[in-house]
Amino acid sequence: MSKREAFLEAACREKVEDFLRFIALHKNKAEPFDVKEVVEEMPREQREALWGRLESLLREILLELPPDRWEEEAMQQEAAPDPKHVRAVVDGVALVAAVSLKVLQDGNSYSALLDIGHRLHDVLVSLPESEASLQLHLQELFEAWWKMGLLGREKFGRTAFLLSLQKSFILKKPGAEIQRLWSLHNVLTVLDYTSEDNKQIIDLLLQCFHRPSHIRSDDGKRFLVFLFSWNVDFIRVIHGSVKNQLEFYPRTMTTHIAEIYFRAWKKASGDFLETIESSCIQDFMQNAIFLLRTSPVHCKVRQIVSYFHSRKGCHRVDKMLYNLYRPILWKSLSVPNFEVRANATLLFTEAFPVHDPDLSNTNVERDITKQLETAMGLLDDPHPTVRSNATLGVCKILAKCWELLPPAVITDLLKKLVVELAADSSSSDVRCAVFKSLTIVLDNPLSHPLLEKLLPTLKYSLHDTSERVRTAFLDLLIKVKAVRAAKFWDVCSMDHLLARLAIDSHSASKRIVGLLFKSFFPVNEPEREWCCRCIILIQMNPMAARKFYQFAHEHTAATNIIKLMLAIRRSLNSCIQVNHDLTDINDSNKENSTLEGPVLPEMAVVSSLLEVVVILWRSVEKALKQNQEAHKYTVTKFGNVMAKYFQAFEDQRSTVPLIQLASFMPPTAVPTFSRGVLSRLRRMDPEAPPAQFSQLLDCICSWGQEADILELVSDWLGKSTPKQGDKAAKSRAVRIQEPVEAKPDLALAYLEYLFSHSFTREKVLALDGGRLKQLLTLLGNWKSVLYDHLRSSTEDPNGPEVETALKAFEYHGRLSAHLQHNSTEGRDYLLSLERVAEWVGDKVLPFLAKRRSDEDGGGERSEKSQQLARRITEGFLTVCRDVVLVGLGDETFKSQILYLCSLILISEAGYMCIPAVLALLKEVANSSVPDDDIQDQESHEDSSTVILGGVANIFQKIIELLASRLRKEPEEGQLLCQSAVPGLSDFLQVVQTWDAALLSGVYSTVFAVLIVEKRHLLQKLTQTEEVFIPQSVDEMPPLSSVLLSVILKSPSVTRSFLAEVSSSLASGDLSSLTELAAVLHVLAVIKQTGKCIGGTKSAAVSVQKHLEKHAVSALGSNELQRVIYESSVKTLNELLHL
Fold it and tell me: What Gene Ontology terms for biological process does this UniProt record contain (predicted)?
């Protein structure tokens, strides 16, 4: 039996295993059996018989187990048809059907094959998602069926198309599926757009315009362009979908969208072309003109329209732009709205010239002349935004059409820009636009001769008051230099550039250095020339020289920077030789045997050169550390001459950079100087400013001798405390051969510098814990000095000063924070701060009492102790605030500090510390809000709720204290309220992150104070003439005025406050006429600001419900109550009609 006959016999239910064996042989590349060859060799009758037998086999096998039950049967263990077996049979039949399509010839009957196709189609529709392989084989079969145009192609093609469309959204790499989708795009021509059956396909097609994979790929673009030709109505749907998503497209995606629109327009004709032009392209044009510039869609629309402008130059595009712009563009250039004019100006100048290509040359020239006159008129527009856009547009026109425009027009336009608009005093934006836009003109070489004459008139723009204008002008000079349009120093003189470099901002200075770099650092010249240029620059402007070399490393290699440093060293050596005959500094290689640099008799130049060396060394310090050989060489070279430099250059200005240079080198490189640094610090005058010791401290730390300075500080602080008796002082003097007086103020100044700079702070904190703990203990001992000052009635002339003790107390807290931050475990240093809090509560707060006068001077003493107690308390609260601010305070610490705050506020004069307490409350509140990513969220929320509840209670106490002080001491209370305004503003802004219950508690306190104070004022009225509606916060009672001014600073705070007003009214807590009138007075003040209109009206509606209840009672009451009611109704009506 031949292979054909055996294969034919196997195509039945009884011999299905043989059939599957043949399919397996076909798939095995090592076997010679090929189904395609077998089917090709079959005569027509035999093929038809094969298809019939396969159709019967497929029907029978699917009756036993339909596709929708494959997954169910796979889960069962009973005797049932094996889903794998059924899948294999279906896959085999699909394979034979696909092969049969390839050998099918015209005129052949394929009814049985068509039946197989229908059955396989039913299988494909019912297939579960897990059958991806079989799904692909069936999809390929129906794709081939569609392409051959056989019977049933519409049905099969639609299914293959839909499946491919769905898979293109699911697959991670949909490239192949998008390619298949494009190959099936003609399926859409047989689908009815209006049919409900195709709604799913339409929705999926619209999604294609939101998928980057479809928009970016070539086949995807072809497919999307084709969709514009499916149905005229579908074009409008596509355009609406694209506009809705345009805001979310990145810039690159928008470019692809613009290309798709352009290609669709290019291929369209008839109604399709008209619809694309009128409904899509012109709609984009209108949106580009009428949308606000702040709209997130505006820039995307402009990008799409600009794509069409970039295709200008061909007849069809020019004609289309002319026809579509004609009804909208020219009107928009003269409308009252400046934003519309500004947008239209950009489109007009970008599309210039907007002309009809079918007109004669004469008419075209006439139209262009009119458009140039329009552009000139736009440069005179009253609004600066329009003038700025017109400036940009005119420069683009000049750059693009220079050779086509009349010379007189070009000259007039440039003079308008350079002479008038560059000096537009009404707008820095216009001036900035001129310089930014002129760089575009410079791209056209034909513009250089004329600009070379005009640009020098702009030289004073370098000193413009606006930094943006100055940087834009410098960018223009850089462009002039790059394109060689003119010599930049002819446009702006070197003296002006250096003067600006000396004083200008970082951004402008970088540009000036880039402009001048080759002039003062000619890397292609010998190193001697570099040094000469450096000296010339110093002589021209020393400040500019320092700024220049700060940025020099950004324009050349570190190697060249080091070479310049060494060249300056040789020049300095030459100066020493000439002035002092110090020939012993010559190196063994005789590099200084002759004058290799210029002679420098002026000490000012020498000092500047030393400063330049320091600046250069600092700029390449990192590179030197990475290259040990270069570092060693540089240190050796400078170390050989440092001692002579210190001898020769003794003036103050030279000493400063020399010390800085020494700090860059190891102490062994400068042995003479390094041995005396600590002695100089020890002998330093106690009142010396930081400038005298800061560099010495830098040297100490850079040499790794920070332990020595810490020991000196500890020694001074220890000797200055009262614990040091006379005997101890004497025994200490025996061990020190040169006793030096203790300088606690200088010690604290040293600590201030060491902990205020990151480099020195890291060095000090890296010391062993014992030294730092000793320093912490010594600083803590100064609390006893403060306590002595609090108790004493007279000043001890030999004892430590109170200011010194206060500084030591502050540094104790700061050092505790630093040590806690460096601590890897435990909370020892937080515990230290908590002990200080207890000390403040026990020892300091009793002195924070109201001053009392007596006959023996106790009043003065009491006042002095009270002020000192206040300063101690506020200083400690400031330290605690900083600890919480940087995230070091845990829950226990916050609780202890809040307890201290409560003790402060209940003390007799604790109100004086309200600003410091508010600042601390703000940080505690800010750090205690639960975070979403905390693992133990529930327990953290519980502890945070407790802390925030305590914060709210303390805030309530603060408000009560402010009200109390205003009643007892109005003037003092007013000053106190004003000092609390910043803290109140920050605190109310922070509580916006709280949950609703806690937030309501804070604002209910504020609202209650406002109502109580205003109600009290209304109840005191005796005459009807005294009733008035406040129009500003200044017309409210004192505390209400302060609180409302704080609330109205922030829209979010105002909204929260109004929500609390509505909530309080809804609860029925406010019902009396005076209370409702007080609420309306508050709302009237908020109304005058124009903020939160919706919240104000909502609160007014709540008031209306309660006020209506007083309509009858107010008429029967006294005259005053009636007037209050009538004024309230009037105010309410005004609020309801906002």
Answer: mitotic sister chromatid segregation
